[in-house]
Write a structure and sequence with these properties.
By secondary structure, the protein is an alpha+beta fold. The protein has a single domain (about 30-135), classed as 2-Layer Sandwich (Hypothetical Protein, Haloacid Dehalogenase-like Hydrolase, Chain: A, domain 2), CATH 3.30.1240. The chain has 3 helices and 6 strands. The protein has helices at about 10-25, 35-45, 105-115; strands at about 30, 55-60, 85-90, 120, 125-130, 130-135. The strands form 2 sheets. Strands 2-3-5-4 form a 4-stranded antiparallel beta sheet, with helices on one face. The relative contact order is 0.21.
């Protein structure tokens, strides 16, 4: 849920302004908004038996995060939506050994997110929700 502009601190306002300038300077286009992010979260949480783990690339980060860096605090640990270039969901449910194919939720994630009309790409480890893309 968005924070009303009159409730933002000066530091938060400055960070939002930096993000806006970065997006404009790099000619990025937003593929997601708050409504789509909520739909994506609802779709992921609606998958029976799936315990999501995720990683994300911050919009102004120079490099992707380490491939082994998965956060199991979904959705509580997701940062501000407008600060993510992408959010990747691990296709394997948290807590299920990697060799166990029953824990592979790649196709279920793709179906659920596409049904929610969320822009996604398949990745080596799972499914990426695209927050911004180049024009």
């Amino acid at each position: 849920m968005a924070i009303p502009k009159d409730k933002l601190t000066e530091k938060q306002k400055q960070e939002l302004e930096r993000l806006r300038h970065f997006v404009a300077r790099n000619r990025l286009s937003s593929r997601m908004n708050g409504t789509k992010w909520r739909a994506a979260i609802d779709a992921v949480l609606g998958l029976e038996g799936y315990r999501p783990s995720f990683r994300y690339k911050a919009l102004m980060a120079a490099a992707d995060p380490p491939e082994a860096q998965w956060d199991e605090g979904f959705p509580a640990n997701i940062p501000l939506y407008n600060s993510m270039e992408w959010l990747e969901l691990n296709a394997l449910s948290a807590g299920i050994p990697r060799k166990d194919k029953r824990g592979d939720f790649r196709q279920a994630l793709l179906r659920a997110l596409e049904a929610a009309r969320v822009p996604v790409l398949e990745s080596a480890a799972g499914v990426r929700i695209i927050g911004y893309s180049g024009t």
